[in-house]
Amino acid sequence: MALIGYARVSTDEQTTAGQLDALRAAGCTEIFEEKASGAFRARPELARALARIARGDTLVIWKLDRLGRSLAHLLEVIEDLRGCGCHFRCLTSPIDTASPHGTLVLQMLGAVAEYERSLIRERTRAGLAAAKARGRVGGNPKLKQGDAATAQRLADRQRQLYLL
User: Fold this and answer.
1) Full-prediction pTM beyond 0.85?
2) Which residue of the set 10, 37, 70, 118 is catalytic?
């Protein structure tokens, strides 16, 4: 039942020193450290941390935004951990999936995330309907024409943004 830490900063000018101190103080035996934007899901050290963690272990982070900027991505990672019999703990918020209280907080965040996704879908549909009423057709024109370079560029970008 190891505590595995994950620390991340976005730029080379930033330092993980404070996060590392907090993770060590919390009892983390192994810490994965990364300099990468939280907007990107494809982060090698996060992938290594998730591959390393075993049943009964806990992934520990200092602050939620260190794991990711998207609530949907946070919840996806945490659900994957739970599915593997692992736990998740955030040092600066009351989230610890090893406790009923922490799980409740996580479930409330999940409900808010689902609500947010519903609102986004609703706004997107309304925007598309308004554009259609004005005679505009959605989509990437070059992609619709079958431009291979555009398709490749979009596929490459998608691979950068998501863990596969």
Assistant:
1) no
2) 10
